[in-house]
Amino acid sequence: DYTYTDGRIAGYRQAMAGRHIEVPERWLGLSWDATAIESVLEHSPEITAIVFLDDGYAVQYGMPALEAAGYRVPEDISVVSFDNISQAITYTPPVTSVELPFYEIGYRAVKVLEEHFRDPMLRSQQIRLKTILHQRASSGPPRTNHSPSHGAGQD
Predict the structure, then answer these.
(1) CA–CA distance from 64 to each of 61, 73, 97, 147 (Å)?
(2) Least buried of 49, 55, 84, 139, by fewest C-beta within 10 Å?
């Protein structure tokens, strides 16, 4: 079950739709290694940014795969991720990250569980919490020519 992954993808699609941008399936790479990034880059040279599902994946696989493919972050492609872990802050370049209110998530989860114990017929509920965007050096304005500069001038 990948509920949080599905939720983040749904949120991404909704945000893009709000800007009248259709998200083709080739923009979505879903694997837990660098093959997803390689596939997205190969099939979608027009992209100017990548949103990783979490900072751990971004710094362990994503950023190194981009570098290995010759992309410069943020000059060729911007990177944004989730969780705001220390590795995102100390990575070079530091990763733009969405911080989740983990304390509030845990607190609310316990409250919902308590309510469920009192009333087992309680329907599931969706709770929206505020997040914080930490904009760092991994993101910048999109390039204008839709063609990455990596490899330019190389034979």
Answers:
(1) 6, 11, 17, 20
(2) 49
Longest dimension (CA), the chain: 69
Q: Which residues touch 32 (CB under 8 Å, ≥6 apart)? A: 57, 61
**pLDDT tens digit sequence for 61-102:** 999 999 999 999 999 999 999 999 999 999 999 999 999 999
- pTM, two decimals, is 0.81
Amino acid, res. 99: E
Which token pair is 8?
Answer: 């983040």
Task: Please report, as a single letter, which amino acid is at residue 65.
Answer: A
| CB atoms near residue 143 (< 10 Å) | 15
CA distance 91 to 84: 12
Distance of alpha carbon 92 from alpha carbon 134, whole angstroms: 15
Q: Nearest CA to 153 among 31, 55, 33, 70?
A: 70
